[in-house]
Amino acid sequence: MTARGPSMTPCVRWLLRARPGDYMLALSVAGASLPVIGKRLEPLGGMTAMGVWGVRHAPNAISAVKKDWLTPGINDERRRDRESTHRVSVAALRGVVSAADLDTEWPAAERTPPIWEALRQRRYLYRRGVHYGDNPAQVLDVWRRMDLPAQPAPVLIFVPGGAWVHGRSVLQGSALMSRLAEQGWVCLAIDYRVAPHHRWPRHIIDVKTAISWARANVDKFGGDRKFVAVAGCSAGGAPVRAGRTHPK
Length: 248
What we know:
By secondary structure, this protein is an alpha/beta fold. Helix content is about 45%, strand content about 15%. It has a five-stranded mixed sheet with strand order 1-2-4-3-5, sandwiched between helices. The model has no long low-confidence stretch (mean pLDDT about 80).
């Protein structure tokens, strides 16, 4: 009895049903698998995935922008929305927060461009490119004050967003980490492996690895190994909401 090889039917079906974006992603993964130069081509997979996503959602985005530009009185409507948000927030916090704190003047929205503000806040960036794992993508940046108090500081691990195809913390979470560092925290902004070259669940494994590393090593940077909080945005917030970041 002769052994039969794998059927080609699934491959043929995929080739017939795939869209141009699927072919582009497949080619980017194949390029990243090449010897020697493959590692340098890995970012192309993320760029391709983000480009495909952008093309699919571009019509809705353009429609929303046109609506904002062409709608009469849009600025007045936005101002009313901001005022309504303030009233709803005060009503929700009343009874939880003291009246004296609620009566204080709330901060106004920043008018400085976000990119410039993020660059300014990086004065608390203490150490870059610290490895928390064996893979070159498993690195983190340490945010902290130069004059930390003697007692161990609370620790925050920040997980950046990017649909799991962009795992760099550059320009993400800078306002949060800058504020916490100013108050005496130690913040760890992590990078992680990304799709399509690195498949799920490697992204989550990297987050868990970073948490394990922090619990074992963050005291070297003045952090409290017993107090490690986790925050993130977009894709980086998904494991936090799901409660799946705690290592077993």
